[in-house]
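Subject: Protein record for review, amino acid sequence with backbone structure tokens
Why sent: The fold of this protein is of interest and is recorded here as tokens.
Enclosed: The protein record, placed directly beneath this head.
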Amino acid sequence: MIDRRALLLGVGGTLVAPCADATEWTPIDPAEAGFPADLGTRIDQFAGGKNIHGVIVVRHGRIVVERYYAGEDQVRDSEGRMHVERVAFSPRHSHDLRSVTKSIIGLLYGIALRDGKVPPLDAPLLAQFPQYDDLPDMAQRRGWTIRHAITMTLGMDWNEEISYDDPRNGQTAMERSPDRARYALEQPIVAVAGERWIYSAGATTLIGKIIEHGVGASIHDYARRVLFDPLGLGPTEWRSVRAGEPIFASGLAMRPRDLARVGQLLLDGGSVGERQVVPADWLEASFTPAVRIDDRRHYGYHWYVGNTVRGRDLRWIGAFGNGGQRLFALPEPAIVVVVTAGSYNQRAASNDLVGDVLEGIR
């Protein structure tokens, strides 16, 4: 029997009716999908007290569990200022994806490349920004390619390990600078390009600007036309800073079930029905390890990749965002897991939750 709590979403210990498009996904009982029968209850117990906002588990294109909870979140007011507010999340709520946005940028570059709108990855990066011909150490910077940016191997000094509330944080400093592209390009060089992974919102900003220039549209309008609308996604938002400049690295918001659609797209080889939305060869290249991050993770074209989950051989593809935003797609068991949360600038429990979800799957 189907667990109706997968259709009626738990919010703060109560149940709410599903939104009108609940039929987008066909449900399946956890046990039938190869999970423990009490998976929903386990997720509820785990989420308690950890400021988890939403969890979606999909297998073979069918929803196994969908949960939403009340929790504290950072909410923007009408003037763009952040404040903390308690929100009772539901399937209708869009959620900040933070740096999951970077991985969406990776997909958009592949689509634009197929359509001849952007240069190939081995094209010189600085050739796309000819106005910055006065940068320091130009001899080294001229060796940069777009591939170095999309794999985050430019070798520039950049620190996003500290809080995003700290003005020394690389992304925070860039977003406050008068010229974000210049800021991203002029940082000191600390490694040979291609040899070391250094996480950088600056790299994503450069990729995003190349896309916008090539397609002649805003990044959000382009994403709606070539990716979000073909997927049938609901409302999305791409937040901006002054003068309407999009926050390429972390500005996207969408409903968790729509993010699950993106995950399913990865497992379906980039196709939706008969339409090839993202080139299959781009996905294959995106998920091929380009640079080592640590013992468990590598990085492709703005996507994280790994081969183990809690010591078990399971290949996964991931997109991660500050606060605990997570998208995991596992090709062999055909599973998608989405987590949204509000643990900004601190360790989030999302990875542990994903590990628990995948524990004991058949």
Observations:
- The longest strand covers residues 312-321.
